[in-house]
Design goal:
Layout: H1 2-45, H2 55-78, H3 91-115, H4 121-158, E1 165-169, H5 173-184, E2 191-196, E3 206-207, E4 210-214, H6 219-225, E5 230-233, H7 240-251, E6 256-259, H8 264-268, E7 277-278, H9 294-301, E8 305-309, H10 314-324, E9 330-335, H11 338-351, E10 357-361, H12 367-377, E11 381-384, H13 391-396, H14 398-418, E12 423-429, H15 438-458, H16 476-479, E13 490-496, E14 498-500, H17 506-515, E15 520-522, E16 528-529, E17 531-533, H18 534-547, E18 553-556, E19 562-563, H19 564-574, E20 585-587, E21 607-609, E22 615-618, H20 625-640, H21 646-653, E23 687-690, E24 693-696
Parallel strand pairs: 1-2, 1-5, 2-4, 5-6, 8-9, 8-11, 9-10, 11-12, 12-13, 13-18, 14-17, 15-20
Antiparallel strand pairs: 3-4, 6-7, 16-19, 18-22, 21-22, 23-24
Length: 699
């Protein structure tokens, strides 16, 4: 350790000595340059002939120059012209040189005139001009040399076979910084061929030697003319609508497309090529960003103890980040997977250093662990995001889907009611609507569970809610724990579709396949899904939670459905490749339990409006809660026995569950005499409820 300290000290002393040597060299340079500047001025003034210089002028110069040199060095030192880092010097350093030169000039004029003979007027101005040029040149020579090398390198790239051509969109401050970074970075081999900007005042002009050729209407033409390989969108302040229009044009030219993440980088000085990122495919979904009432959410979450289950997952981690921004009293993170929990713990510590939060490793299937967590932290609000969500994997392990999703939800909800939690929010999915896979059926069971809990609490019959424990009891007090009839927990569910970029979603898979050179696999050319970004979905979940009164199933309007095939081809284009030419698109067929489309609500569920037009409330489907709870207990036993007929057993409880070989596939086979309508497309606003019946007004 001591050796390292001494080594560091020696290195620091060496660097310090180098700086002193450079400063000393500059002093000697200035002594000679200042002295010679006015001699050269006198010499040039008399036609560069030394012998015709008048003796009185030469004598005045010789007697005064020593004093002038000493004065100039002192002034230069006072203006810190010997301890600047000239490699990164800028306009302020130039101003210092100008000020120092002006002072020395006045000194020279006044004192040589008063003490000695007046000199020719041209002598003063020519001498000070030479002195200024010499002083400025030596200090900026390193920057001039670097600029010269960059210029040579830039023109060298234009004729290099490995160089790719870049089209820059945006000739503002960000565009200039990116262009400068490209020119001066030796590791960047690409060349900016032209710049696009919608400001007509910039057309026909040049930015660092690169032509500004016109507005966005010239993008396609310029791509062909300059053989563009990459497009950099560097307009961080552009509106979302304008950005989307530009991206639509760029998408059609099959170039690799990158952009700056945000305008904050312009203010923080972080505009570099390294900060450029791929344009997210969600920018091409064709809708405006979701807006929520942040004030209402803040008032709802502020100063409350909040528990998030599945806190390390895609939705759970974003829930934690957004909740942390709303000043909770305590945030408890529960997850079974330690790596994900560690990641979100690190993010929260970095972004919210003053946040009070706890991380807990545990499973929602462990009722004793849940009792410990709820008993110790006493959360007032629970966001239940823990679930197995991968459809094909759950088809292979149906009992695990029931254990983790349905029974995990039951045990978490039971603990919430038992320990006086005020609100329980279940994160559900559109796959729970008319499910064709066990994952969707298990999530429908989750919705039925929270509806049953809500009904029993409102009817003051919480003693009828069975404690579905799966472990042996160490004492009778644990076994007899029942929810008191005074419980007031409000249970709600929020249902939405796929989220872009989540674990297991198609976007990360497509990106990996493109990086490997293809093929990109799509299950079916006509398969469609509703999409939303993770932050958008979570913000709507938080907003929906503020509207809850208990028993609701909130349905998020996710816009128009998107074809997965179109999404894959857009992503290939955004990566700079041509679909089916550079990267093949291969159709692999629907996977077990997979639909061509997802539905956001069942035919039996009418819709009610909320203050947010993107959040609706589905009318609960009536079912016998007592019978459901009895059947759920049987399902639990079957799941833990790993029964092979678990799907058939689930179908008896979730009557809308249809799977290959089930009797529920045929239309009309639903409980309570209610018909089932398969909704294949359309916006959620196309559904209206009239006298308890739901009609579809779409095409």
């Amino acid at each position: 350790m001591k050796d390292k300290i001494y080594s560091y000290k020696e290195s620091s002393q060496k660097r310090f000595s180098q700086w002193r040597y450079k400063a000393a060299a500059l002093v000697f340079y200035d002594i000679f340059s200042v002295a010679l500047s006015f001699f050269i001025a006198l010499w040039v003034l008399y036609d560069c002939k030394f012998h015709i210089i008048p003796e009185k002028y030469l004598e005045s110069y010789i007697k005064f120059i020593g004093v002038y040199v000493i004065f100039s060095i002192l002034i230069f030192w006072r203006f810190r012209l010997y301890n600047c880092i000239w490699k990164s010097a800028g306009f302020s350093e130039v101003l210092k040189i100008v000020a120092a030169t002006a002072i020395t000039f006045l000194f020279h004029v006044v004192f040589i005139t008063l003490i000695f003979d007046p000199m020719p007027v041209a002598y003063y101005f020519l001498g000070i001009a030479i002195q200024f040029a010499a002083t400025l040149f030596v200090r900026f020579s390193s920057r001039l040399w670097a600029y010269f090398k960059n210029y040579v390198r830039y023109f060298g790239r234009r004729f290099s076979s490995g160089s790719k051509n870049i089209l820059l969109i945006g000739a503002g401050d960000a565009g200039q910084l990116i262009l400068s970074d490209i020119h001066k970075s030796p590791e960047i081999k690409d060349t900016v061929k032209c710049i696009i900007d919608d400001d007509p005042n910039k057309w026909g002009r040049f930015l660092e030697g690169v032509p500004i050729v016109g507005g966005r209407d010239k993008i396609v033409k310029c791509v062909e003319k300059y053989r563009i390989d990459k497009i950099f969108l560097v307009i961080p302040s552009v509106s979302y609508e304008e950005k989307r229009k530009i991206l639509e044009i760029c998408k059609s030219v099959k170039c690799e497309l990158k952009e700056l993440p945000g305008i904050y980088q312009l203010y923080s000085g972080e505009i570099t090529v390294a900060k450029m990122k791929d344009v997210p495919v969600e920018d091409l979904l064709g809708r405006n960003p979701v807006k929520v009432d942040m004030k209402q959410i803040f008032e709802y979450l502020s100063e409350k103890a909040i528990l998030v289950t599945g806190a390390g997952g895609s939705i759970g981690s974003e829930l934690c980040l957004q909740i942390a921004a709303h000043n909770p009293k305590l945030l408890v993170l529960l997850d079974f997977y330690e790596n994900n929990l560690y990641d979100i713990q690190f993010k929260l510590k970095s972004k919210f250093p003053s946040l009070k939060f706890e991380t807990v490793i545990g499973s929602v299937r462990d009722s004793r662990k849940l009792a410990e967590v709820f008993g110790h932290y006493r959360p007032e609000i629970v966001f239940h995001a823990a679930a197995h969500k991968h459809v094909p994997l759950m088809e292979d392990s149906p009992c695990e889907a029931i254990k983790n999703n349905a029974l995990g939800t039951y045990k978490t909800a039971y603990a919430a009611a038992l320990y006086g939690c005020k609100r329980f929010v279940l994160i559900s999915t559109d796959k729970a609507v008319n499910p064709t896979n066990i994952m969707g059926a298990s999530k429908r069971l989750c919705e039925m569970i929270i509806q049953s809990f809500d009904k029993k609490i409102k009817d003051k019959k919480t003693s009828e809610i069975p404690a579905l424990f799966t472990h042996s009891f160490e004492d009778e007090s644990e076994k007899s724990s029942i929810i008191p009839n005074t419980a007031t927990t409000e249970f709600v569910a929020v249902r939405f579709g796929n989220v872009l970029g989540s674990n297991g979603s198609v976007i990360p898979l497509f990106k990996k396949q493109i990086e490997m050179g293809g093929p990109v696999t799509v299950t079916h050319p006509d398969i469609v899904r509703y999409f939303m970004t993770i932050p958008e979905a979570v913000s709507l979940v938080l907003q929906a939670a503020t509207y809850a009164h208990g028993g609701e199933i909130f349905v998020l309007d996710m816009g128009e459905p998107v074809k997965i095939d179109t999404l894959a081809r857009n992503l290939i284009s955004l990566s700079g490749y041509r679909p089916d030419v550079d990267i093949k698109v291969v159709y692999t067929g629907l996977r077990p339990g997979e639909k061509l489309y997802e539905e956001k609500l069942m035919a039996e569920e009418g819709l009610q409006k909320t203050p947010n037009e993107l959040i609706h409330i589905g009318k609960p489907i009536p079912f016998d809660c007592d019978e459901f709870l009895k059947e759920l207990e049987k399902l639990m036993q079957a799941a833990y026995d790993n029964r092979e007929d678990i799907r058939e057993r689930v179908a008896k409880v979730v009557t809308t569950y249809r799977f290959k070989g089930s009797k529920n596939v045929e239309r009309g086979d639903c409980s309570e005499g209610l018909d089932e309508i398969s909704i294949t497309s359309g916006n959620i606003k196309d559904y209206v409820s009239r006298e308890g019946k739901t009609e579809y007004k779409g095409a």
